[in-house]
Structure formats: C-alpha cells, structure tokens
What we know:
2 copies of one chain form a homodimer. By secondary structure, the first copy, chain A, is of the alpha/beta class.
Amino acid sequence: MIRLLLADDQHLIRAGLAALLNLEEDLEVVHQLPDGTGVVDAVREHGVDVAILDIEMPQVDGITATQHLSEAFGTEVAVLILTTFGRAGYLQRAMTAGAQGFMVKDAPAEQLAAAIRTVHDGGTAVDSTLAAEALSTGTSPLTDRERDVLKAALTGASVKDIAAAVHLSAGTVRNHLSSAIGKTQTSNRSEAARTAQLKGWL
Amino acid sequence: MIRLLLADDQHLIRAGLAALLNLEEDLEVVHQLPDGTGVVDAVREHGVDVAILDIEMPQVDGITATQHLSEAFGTEVAVLILTTFGRAGYLQRAMTAGAQGFMVKDAPAEQLAAAIRTVHDGGTAVDSTLAAEALSTGTSPLTDRERDVLKAALTGASVKDIAAAVHLSAGTVRNHLSSAIGKTQTSNRSEAARTAQLKGWL
DNA sequence: GCGGGCCAATGACATTTGTCATGGACAATA
DNA sequence: TATTGTCCATGACAAATGTCATTGGCCCGC
Lengths: 202, 202
C-alpha cells in the first residue's frame, strides 16, 4: 500500500483527488494539507511514501515544500508536483528542488495513478511535452532584482509604486524593468511581467 | 438518485469531483464534459437533474452554458456553478443567467453535496459572504467597448496593439481606456484591466 | 590584478500614455 | 422634438515610461 500526502489550497480539489486516489487498491491518502507549511512533520508523522504537491499555495509553495522534503528525506520520500499550469520554469525549479514527478491537472486520471507508482518505484514521471518545452525555453535569464520588479509589476503598478515596494529609486527600477523587457522580448513592463510569469520565471 | 453532469476543463479535477460525489448514496455523476459545448444535448440525453459547471472553460464558459440550459429547460434542470474565483461579477452574471447555486472550489466537500441537494429541491445555494460582496461591488459600470479594450489590455498590450485588436483608432482606444481607468479607480490600463477582472467584470 | 556581471543611482531624451476638450453619428428615452 | 449616453475620432498637452550613457561599489572567476 503506497501511503500518500496531498497538499492543495482548494478544499474541494483535495477532497476530490483523495476520493479518486483512494479508489485504487494500492493507494491510500493518509493526510491532507491546505499549504506547504508543516509538510515535513506531516510526512514523518504519517509515514508517507509519496507527497503530491500543488505549486501555488498561500504560505509555502510546492517547490519550497519539495526542497524541505528533499533535505529531510532525500529520495526516501518521493515528490510528485501536480499543478494547474505546466510552466517551463515551474518544471525546471521543481526538478532542481528534488521532485521526481511533475504533472498538470489537465492530465487523465489514470496517468496520475501511474505517475505515483512510477515515482514510488524510484522512477521519474514527467510529461514529455512539458520536458521538451522546458528545454526549449531554457533557464530564466532574469536577475534577482529583475524578478523582484517584474513581480511588483504584475499588479499593474506604476514605476513609482514598484519603487516603493522594492525600496529602490524610480530610476533604478526603470533600468531593471528596461533590462527585463529586453530579456523577455516584450515592449512594456506589464507584458514582460506576464511573459515571465507564463514561462514560470517568476 | 440525483443525476449529475460535471463540466470542467481539467481532466483530473473532473475525475476527482466525480469520485467524491459518487461516494454519496443519493448522488450519481452520469456524464462529464470538458467544456460548455454540447451541454444542452448532454443534459437531455442523460436525464440530468443538476448540472455542475466551472466558469472558465475554453470554448463555451459556464455562464453561457447556464443561459443555454435555462433557455432549454427552465428550472426543470438546476445549475450549480463551481468556480475557482468567487468574483462578484461572476456571481451576478451566473444568477442573472439562471443558475440556482454558486460555490468556490475552496469550500468544504460536505457543502458541495448539501448545495446540490438544495438546488435539486428548488432552493438557492449561494455563499452569504460572496453574496454580500457581490451586492457591495455592484454591477459592472463598464460599457461594452470599455470591456473590450480592457480585455485586450490584460496581456500587457500597448495602445497600438489594442487598437489593432479591436479595430479602432489609437485615440479612441485611449479615450475608452481613460474612462475605464476612472471607473475602476486605478491609474493605468494594466491595473484597470486587473481590477475589472478581479471584480468579475470581464 | 583585471575584467565582467550585478546592483544602485542620476540625468538626458524620445516615445508612449492618460487626460481633456471638441465635434459628429446613432439609439433610446422623456 | 429634445436630451442623454455610447461610440468614434482628432488634437493638444502634461506626465509617465523606456532607452541609453555614465559613474561607482561589490563580488567572482581567470
């Protein structure tokens, strides 16, 4: 019996996925979390074999949680990322953080069970289309500060507002934004922010 | 036995929700759709009592599908909207379109089953917090053209790009954008587009 | 020790954006 | 028939944005 932990911020999604996975004879969801917070303790406490983590969660995201699990258990506990958006940067960061699998919620249900068994057996379960896209996208060319100002730009903030948010002068922010616009091959900060987000670079 | 139809674009979410709902003795998911397309035929063909619809779907969204069902069946078939974002405008448009229920995916699992029974019995199932927010937000003050240019602005497009997309002159687009910025009490088109989206006005 | 990249900042300049006024067409309402 | 609101367009203007050059500090690799 493969013991599973599920982390997803949406109540109904967790409950539904738990119901689905519990239908399999060899799978059992032994714990659920609404966030990445406390994932290491929960895995230890419930003797979890495979942790299934969403990425976008309020406090601790799935990639950070993956790092925590990797540091605490090595490959003794397998991590499978299950996310809404199959963004290249997400896949890269997830695998770098120590995940053994990466799936999108748009995949067929049978693929989820198969992926769980694969990572439990020490294998890797990543959709080949996503892997190819990740390779062609390449790693993020953005510096830390470029990423900071783009994150702030996501809300449609003005240069002045972004400057206040990251505690830099407006001129410095414009320089970082201009550089990020060039790297994302866009024409303004909103477009740059969105492109970076879609590529999973934010 | 209450016969259910589920429409959601994500495979795993549909499968999980189906598994969850089928655990209830009096509920049975008799059909699933990945989109609002063909929902009327599917409801007729499978003798569906309650249709559970996501809003954001590729071809036909859940609100449009609700209108189609309301036109075809009146209150003979109940509609329960189940969405990721509890946006005020979504709730307003859903109820106006003829939905009997509105829930977010963040709700507890028991609430979903209870809501299904409520709408099946002819009642209304709307979270009171969402209802209050919808009332305080008010209906969208945006004109059709303002909405059009804001939708185009969501991608971070320049005025020139937006003008090309909606087939108007750049000056006209700037006027519509300026008006929309005023109505959303923001300071630029990206912020206006995002605010309108969050309120469910787009 | 030197070169390169990142980071921070200032300043100049061209372009874009947002506001506002104005005018006209059209449809709906009083 | 007159008024109002939406839509379209142009033009003027101020403010914001994005680009670019320049300077300096710090860190890292060669």
